[in-house]
Amino acid sequence: MSFANACLHEKIGQVRMDVCEAILSLLDAIMLYHGTYFKRGIKRTFEELSQFPLDGKFSEGIRKISESKDVTELRSLAKSLILYAENYTSKVTEKAIPTKESLSGTYEEMYSNWRNKVEEAAVNNDTYSSFVNMCCLQYMISDVSADVNIGTYDIMEAYNPDCPEDNVRIYDEFLADYEKIYKEAGIAVNRFSDVDKFYGAYVGEDDL
Questions:
Q1: What is residue 162's three-state secondary structure?
Q2: Pick from 25, 43, 8, 35: nearest CA to 82
Q3: Which helix (H) or strand (E) holds 2?
Q4: Whole-angstrom distance, CA of residue 59 vs CA of residue 201
Q5: DSSP 8-class letter at 187
Q6: Residues 135 and 182 in one domain
Q7: Is residue 76 domain-shared with residue 129, that is, in the same domain?
Q8: Residue 194 phi/psi, 5° resolution?
Q9: Measured distance CA(129)–CA(122) in Å, rounded
Q10: CA 157, 163, 164, 169: dihedral to nearest 10 degrees?
């Protein structure tokens, strides 16, 4: 939030306060990552950081912020610090292999939630709807791939703002690839001839 504020504010005094808040949050995050906290006061900050395998550019970036007289430079330095700290504190975890238990129902959800909306957006030349629904697909892909090794899919890199029809193709190509992952995991895609059968399968026949 502090970095977002630094990008929104224009007066250098306020931006300095925003990036200072960002720095303090990053420093706390690094300490917590190592299971400790600062014990010796602000003037000993860099001494305490030296016990960790941090790139020297991190401390250098903090010093440059304290010396900066330019709003654009302050934002750029803060961004670099945030990206470095995010990478530094990221824990690499081994992802699970695709299984029926981990993936069952995800293809159907990806299809039923947004696929036809993307097609409708193409028919209506509705770029906004196409954009939002493609992003929703990407959110779900990212959520699934965070825990399960389904590969990397950057739908929004391929997204075409000039041609909503092309986004239908992109969506379908992903679904075709994802169905292969389904099959490798021993899962058959559930397909329904009409909406009532789909609703009955996922909500319950008694609710029809």
A1: coil
A2: 25
A3: helix 2-8
A4: 57
A5: -
A6: yes
A7: no
A8: -155, 170
A9: 9
A10: -70
Q: Which two tokens stand for residue 82?
A: 């945030």
Last residue of a domain, one of 45, 67, 88: 88
* Model confidence pLDDT, tens digit, residues 85-111: 999 998 777 899 999 999 999 999 999
Q: How far does CA 194 lie from the centroid of its chain?
A: 34
- Residue 86's identity, in one-letter code, is E
* 89: Cβ contacts below 8 Å, ≥ 6 apart: 29, 30, 33
Q: What does the alpha-carbon distance between residue 150 and residue 148 come to, in Å, rounded to a whole number? A: 6
Calpha distance 76→61 (Å, rounded)? 10
Give the separation between CA 40 and CA 168, rounded to whole angstroms: 58
Q: How many residues does the chain have?
A: 208
Confidence category of residue 208, pLDDT binned at 50, 70, 90: very low
